[in-house]
Amino acid sequence: MFNSETLEVAIGMAFLFLLMALICTGIKEWLEGIFKWRAMDLERGLRTMLDDEKGQLTAYLYEHPLVLSLYQGKYDPAHLTENRLTNWIPGVSQAMQVRWSRRRNLPSYIPAGHFAKALIDLVGRGPASVDNETAPDALLTIAHLRERAAALSSPFLRRAVLSAIDHAGGDLRQLTENLQHWFDGSMDRASGWYKRRTQTVLFLLGIAAAIVLNVDALYIMSRLTADKTFRETVVSAAAKVEAPAPGAAGSPTDALETARKARAELDKVGMPVGWLEVLDNKQAWFYGLAPVQRCHVVSVTAVEPVRCTETKYSPLRIVLGWLITAFAVMLGAPFWFDLLNKFMVIRSTVKPHEKSREEGSEDRADTASKDAQAPSAPALLRVVAPAAGANAAGARLVPGPLPEAFVPHEWRDSVVNSREIPL
Question: What's the pLDDT at 227?
């Protein structure tokens, strides 16, 4: 199993990846506040669900009062455009999406209950903006909904709504629950789009942050292994880390503040990251900067670049360390926080042998103390025969070891009991 040093190195690496994931997640949430990817995926998921490529039925749903109250703005399907980032890839669906300037005010989330009730009302009474019903205020019934659902133009949507009505058993409440389950299942697909995009964005941000900050996972792991003082500092900081907030931190400004705090924590614990401005341009990679792994500092002043000697640290190994950091960031901050907690629990339960003596059992200690206090067992008694010529009654018992020939519970001919009563 792990020894204490290996466990502390694992804690240090998990702490490093947690900080990097927090930095990249904060930047990603800031970008989310600008590009509104959640709102885009929700709108696309609704059009896919309703078999509404042009977005007309989706527009009626967005204009329904139950949904319209969830956002500020207006949904216009005329602003649907092709996704230029993915439509050129062979085998990828030629999906349409709302333009960035038109989705900033669209909702990022619609409750399943709101969707189900709005769809039932649309099927039974028509769009809220087109009031051409003879009795729009009449109570909706299952029979009326079945009649209206059979007239839907989309065969996909018609079959889905009729199937929900069939399984409702004539109960309008059960029909609402059936449509909610349909909505939840369809939104899982939209969630998959968002998760895959999030992983891609986190990887790109991770590799960018690893290069800009020069976060080489392999180099940091070697430093944690070799430097005990640095390792103890990192473990002490990891023990004080708090759980990251789930999802967005509230606003793009809060998300960037989370990223800044994580970046400051990297400097606080003294992680060996970053670039050095060197005097010799031959050692520099670009703009007079060299990675800390490649430079053994000889002298440094407050106003001048450092003077250093180049080490044999391979550039290929630095690139590999950057890639490891980027892939670790893809796993997300919650993953690394949970793993860090597990490592800390293991560390708190395992005591290294060199730091804590083996304590004896309390039962053994109690037994030993009782034995020490108990009186010693009496010595065995042996028979001392009287001197020659003396009366046999002079035989007596004195403390001492028994003779080797003595066998308990057996008669001996040489011993006479003077008090024996003759028969």
Answer: 87
Identify whether the C-beta of residue 15 lies closer than 8 Å to the C-beta of residue 342.
Answer: no
Interval 230-246 mean pLDDT: 81
CA distance 113 to 64: 13
Q: Is 214 in contact with 274 (CB distance < 8 Å)?
A: yes
List the structure tokens of 350: 């395992």
Distance CA 40, CA 310 (A): 50
Using the predicted structure, report yes or no on whether residue 385 has a pLDDT greater than 80: no
368, amino acid identity:
A
Q: For the beta carbon of residue 343, count every other beta carbon within 10 angstroms.
A: 21
Q: Containing H/E element for 333?
A: helix 333-349
CB neighbours of residue 70 within 10 Å: 14
In the chain, how many H helices and how many E strands?
14, 8
Q: What global pTM score does this model have?
A: 0.68
Average pLDDT of the chain to the nearest whole number: 77
> How far is 61 from 56, CA to CA, in rounded Å?
9
Alpha-helical regions (H) of 36-132: 37-49, 56-63, 65-68, 112-125
Q: What is the pLDDT of residue 278?
A: 67
Residue 295 main-chain phi, psi, to 5 deg: -130, 120
In sequence order, the β-bridge partners of residue 306 are: 278
Count the Cβ atoms, other than its own, within 10 Å of residue 421: 5
Sequence-distant (≥ 6) Cβ neighbours of residue 293 within 8 angstroms: 214, 216, 219, 272, 311, 313, 318
Helix (H, G, I), strand (E, B) or coil at 11: helix
Question: In terms of Cα–Cα distance, which of 247, 289, 354, 335 is closest to 3?
Answer: 354
* Residue 377 pLDDT > 60: no
User: Which alpha helices (H) appear in 214-301, and where do they start and end?
Assistant: 217-226, 228-238, 252-268
> For residue 45, what are its two tokens?
């998921």
Tell me the HSE value of 221 on the side-chain side, using a 13 A CA sphere. Answer: 16
Quick check: 288 pLDDT over 70?
A: no
- Residue partners of 187: CB distance under 8 A and separation at least 6: 42, 45, 112
Residue 192 has pLDDT above 50, yes or no: yes
Burial of 270 (0-12, 13-18, 19+ CB in 10 A): middle
Helix (H, G, I), strand (E, B) or coil at 166: helix
Give me the count of residues in the chain: 423
Beta strands in 149-246 (DSSP E): none
Closest by CA to 190, choosing from 110, 246, 249, 85, is: 110
